[in-house]
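Troubleshooting entry. Yesterday's outputs looked truncated, so today I'm pasting the complete records for two proteins to confirm everything comes through intact. If either block looks cut off, that's the bug. Protein one:
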Amino acid sequence: MIEKQFKTLREQLEIMKSKGMTINDEAFAKKVLLRENYFFLNGYRYPFMKSSSDKHFLKGVTFEEMYSLFLFDRAIRNVFLKNLLIIENNLKSIFSYQLSKKYGYKEKDYLRAKNFTSDRSKQRQVNDLIKKMKRQIRSNSNQHTATAHYAKNYGYVPLWILVKVLSFGIIGELFSIFKYEDQIDICELYHIDVSTFHIYLPILSNYRNLCAHEDIFYENRTQKVIPDTIYHKVLEIPKDSEGVYINGKNDLFALLIIMKQMLTDQEFADFILELDGWIQNLDYNLHTIKIEKIMNRMGFPNNWKQLMNIERSFGNE
């Protein structure tokens, strides 16, 4: 195994130069590399390379241009995260309301195994998740302000308080063990069928975690693939030779389709406006490649903004 050696900032710049990159301001480039990390920044080089086999940069590519893609990714990551947090909060609110209304608001009531699926294959999962939630109550009774307040003054922690300290992953797992009728009640609020909702939740959780850890975001692909929707059809997304839509299945545009269905119309319109602003800003800063190359890596079709104007529809295509 070849050992990776430490490189000084100057050596890092020399590597970039050797690949054909233009460094207009070395002092600026060194400052960026020190603050942002050569390894992370270098992950944005691929759209600017001649080909997958030729690792040299296209003629004229500058450090500033590659850095603009890095900053763009950070900006849209934050825009997506802001709206993912809205969805996360909505789900927690809806889940806690539906269960509290039906099964009670004290943990001794709502954390009973009989409140969840009777599917024998999921009984271990039910018991494990109940234990996780009880553990969260214990661990947050002295740390989380609201949890501590209810535990100390009332002797119980209502579900609408507990959900605040549950991760998005646990929320998704919680939905998977709900009784089917409870799943239907929740899905009807979003006009999404249950089977599709099961696919959406882990995708949302995956992207939420990706945002929190500052990983490369714009060209991420998920293992799960979303079902075909009316949005694919109305936008006339082209299909490949196997009849599969080439955009909006497991890319960032697929996430946008999910969020279209889970945000309010106004929230989604604001989201699109902010996202488009950052895309236009990147377009201005690109000189050796076209913005379409980045949009393609994101999975965004040319008419992506029309998604905002398509009416919501229950079910899939």
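Protein two, checking that the full record survives here as well:
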Amino acid sequence: MAKHGKRTTAAREAFAGKDMLTVEEAVSLIKANANAKFDETLEIAMNLGVDPRHADQMVRGVVGLPNGTGKDVRVAVFARGPKAEEAQAAGADIVGAEDLMEIVQGGKIDFDRCIATPDMMPVVGRLGKVLGPRNLMPNPKVGTVTMDVADAVKAAKGGEVQFKVEKAGVIHAGIGKASFDEVKLVENVRAFVAAVAKAKPTGTKGTYMKKISLSSTMGPGVNLNIDNAASE
């Protein structure tokens, strides 16, 4: 049996017997035990009662966290002419058209969010097999296929988080840094849970939110009281 370090052992002891906590209790516990040598990310995992293989049970959306994520998000924009200039002025890290497509096809994906103007989708569409599995494919439903590229870039840079349910019915996201104060982390958690609740698909039957857990990058997880997490 592998031996755990003192930090891991201490964290596990601190979390032992803790279950169905309020958001405030969970955030306080996680912050107190996020002792890695870097600023850990607070991560949320939500188990949903959906089967995303059915179109009417797909859950996806976007939420602007009130206090941002604390992450430096690199944004790529597919655009030409004035729209390319707008994207650059708004702070996009990479802007291009066919030239950017070739870079991505070559395996270099040096960005966290991808935005495109509608006229660029025939070009971007050829990258579906590359961008799709990484959840980077631009989509009008989450505002990443748009003529308003400046606002889209600013939103991505400002703490907007996209979410999409995985095959097992789970949604994962990073929703802040352990260095954030507790109030800001609580606000972010509640905003994210509210957004997922609002995105409940029409084909859902039975319990929609089955389990919500929080953890830090290197720490144990703890389950939340769903009624508390879903309340404003």
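Both blocks look complete. Sanity check on protein two: The chain has nine helices and nine strands.
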